[in-house]
Amino acid sequence: MSDKALKKKQLIIEKSRDVFARKGYRAVTMKDLVEACGISRGGLYLYFDCVEAVFKGVIESESKKGDPDIIGMMPSNPRTIDYLKLFFHEQKRDILRGGDSLLSAMYEYSFEKNGKESEEQTLIASQFDKSVSFLTALIKKGNELSDVNCEEPADFAMSVMISLEGMRVLSRCMTLSEQMVNTRISALLAPILPKQQ
Prior knowledge:
By secondary structure, the chain is an all-alpha fold. The protein has helices spanning 3-23, 30-37, 41-45, 51-64, 68-72, 80-96, 103-113, 123-144, 153-173, 178-189. The chain has two domains: 3-62, Homeodomain-like (Arc Repressor Mutant, subunit A), CATH 1.10.10.60; 66-192, Tetracycline Repressor, domain 2, CATH 1.10.357.
């Protein structure tokens, strides 16, 4: 794909993200995406053959995004707590996004695909499992380095992710303040952190 074509495809993904965040997944049509992107229907079909393909492109693009400012602030010799802070910063940012989040669209997509995808998990389940695995591995490494103290890393990671997912869902139904989210995250982390943290 040429540079121009790649830029056009990325523009479609960026503009479509806003449509999915605003309308969810089920309500979005190719016409909505054409209008949001300011291109012809044929122009959109050059890159994506259906709404689902565009949505998958948006999700893939989102999963590749990082927070370069935070990553740049990591110490040169990071400890487990530094990685945990980065992980929870990303989680908090996602929770506080509220109406700017793709959460509703992701749930709708997952509900629609649940039981219909034989080889791949639903989007929500897949992301949840990746987060649990990442957090489990991070805590195990922290145990080895004596940065944290957690007897059951996998159980702890599962509990944390269930709590975070609950806050994500609540953020779509009510306003969660940054202080409220910070307090919950601190409470989640407290059992495994050494007392001087």
